[in-house]
């Protein structure tokens, strides 16, 4: 089924594949099936995407959310910054994850071999089970550039390499957790011409939270860039959305964002209304593809979306959590 998922090229095809995945997961995912039963939803009632129940993301903290009996090749976990309970994503076929992020990168940025990938992700490197580290490590290897790699706390070396590559006209992606990028521009100032700076969100308790516009203004000034890119992903997903600037994200064809009413979580809102972010990630074929997140946002008419904050009393994680 995942071969069909990665060949989606129309809204109608997305709908058909989403309904196939729903029926598969209703049959094979006991946690999701029980949730549907609680909502009194039967498969014969689900004719459109709007009819599909979205599993609250908290279930990944308390249940084993799986749709297969296969052995797990990878187990991804969240950081659990403010809670003892961490999300766990059991991945039975890691090649689906790899195909998802490689095809998505190619869609939004082109050939990975054209880039040097510099990663500034100290809080992720300092623990096991990060899906972001798995992805970035693979991108570093695929880039096949000598300077590609992780930079933990050696900001001086990173500064020298970044300036040298950019000055030589090399295409560079610097992907970093928010607090580490701020640390870098507080210590050094840049005037970059050939580098994409991509923040993955999250202060991880290291700094005061900033609204997105304030953060990006600081980073744009520090790096000498007109725009800061962003990545929106999380432990519970096998796909990512990317922003080329201004906090507006786009998804690959097998991923879709819908907005639910904050007062009535079973009610979906139309475009340009703020509410809870629901995600369909069809790459999650072996876990759950229909997730109600704790993020707030809105979808635009061209299917791009913005992340506007978090629900109150929800824990901070490594996805893009910055208010607009």
Remind me, CATH topology of the largest domain?
Luciferase, domain 3
The largest β sheet comes out as: 12 strands, mixed
**Number of helical regions:** 10
Computed structural class: alpha/beta
**Beta-strand content bin:** 15-25%
Number of domains: 2
End-to-end CA span: 37 Å
Low-pLDDT segments, ≥5 res: 313-324
Order of helices and strands: HHHEHEEHEHHEHEHEHEEEEEEE
Overall CATH class of the largest domain: Mainly Beta
Radius of gyration: 19 Å
Any idea what the CATH architecture of the largest domain is? Roll
Write the CATH homologous superfamily of the largest domain: Luciferase, Domain 3
Number of DSSP E strands: 14
What does this structure look like?
By secondary structure, the chain is α/β, with parallel strands linked by helices. It folds into two domains: 2-75 and 248-310, Luciferase, Domain 3 (Luciferase, domain 3); 96-232, 3-Layer(aba) Sandwich (Rossmann fold). It contains ten helices and 14 strands. The chain has helices at residues 2-5, 11-28, 30-38, 59-62, 94-109, 122-125, 131-143, 155-167, 178-187, 212-223; strands spanning 55-56, 74-77, 88-91, 116-120, 149-150, 172-176, 195-199, 229-232, 241-243, 248-250, 255-260, 275-281, 290-299, 305-310. Strands 1, 4, 5, 6, 7, 8, 9, 10, 11, 12, 13 and 14 form a twelve-stranded mixed β-sheet that branches. A two-stranded antiparallel sheet has the order 2-3. It is globular and about 60 Å long. Residues 313-324 have low confidence and may be disordered.
């Amino acid at each position: 089924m995942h071969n069909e998922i990665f060949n989606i090229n129309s809204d109608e095809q997305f709908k058909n594949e989403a309904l196939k995945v729903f029926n598969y997961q209703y049959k094979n995912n006991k946690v999701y099936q029980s949730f549907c039963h609680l909502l009194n939803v039967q498969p014969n009632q689900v004719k459109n995407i709007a009819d599909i129940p979205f599993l609250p993301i908290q279930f990944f903290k308390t249940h084993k959310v799986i749709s297969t009996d296969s052995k797990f090749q990878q187990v991804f976990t969240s950081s659990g910054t403010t809670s003892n309970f961490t999300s766990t994503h059991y991945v039975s076929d890691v090649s689906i994850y790899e195909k998802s992020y490689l095809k998505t990168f190619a869609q939004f940025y082109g050939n990975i071999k054209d880039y040097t990938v510099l990663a500034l992700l100290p809080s992720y490197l300092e623990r096991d089970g990060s899906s972001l580290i798995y992805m970035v490590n693979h991108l570093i290897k695929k880039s096949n550039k000598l300077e590609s790699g992780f930079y933990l706390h050696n900001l001086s070396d990173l500064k020298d390499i970044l300036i040298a590559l950019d000055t030589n006209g090399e295409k560079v992606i610097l992907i970093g957790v928010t607090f580490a990028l701020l640390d870098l521009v507080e210590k050094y100032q840049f005037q970059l011409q050939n580098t994409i700076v991509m923040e993955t969100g999250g202060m991880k308790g290291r700094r005061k939270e900033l609204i997105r516009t304030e953060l990006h203004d600081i980073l744009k000034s520090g790096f000498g860039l007109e725009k800061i890119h962003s990545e929106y992903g999380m432990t519970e997903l096998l796909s990512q959305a990317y922003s080329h600037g201004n906090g507006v994200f786009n998804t690959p064809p097998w991923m879709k964002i819908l907005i639910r009413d904050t007062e009535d979580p079973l009610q979906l809102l139309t475009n340009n209304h703020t509410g809870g972010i629901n995600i369909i990630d069809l790459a999650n074929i072996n876990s759950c593809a229909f997730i109600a997140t704790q993020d707030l946002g809105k979808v635009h008419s061209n299917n791009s979306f913005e992340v506007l904050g978090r629900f109150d009393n929800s824990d901070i994680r490594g996805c893009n959590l910055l208010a607009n």
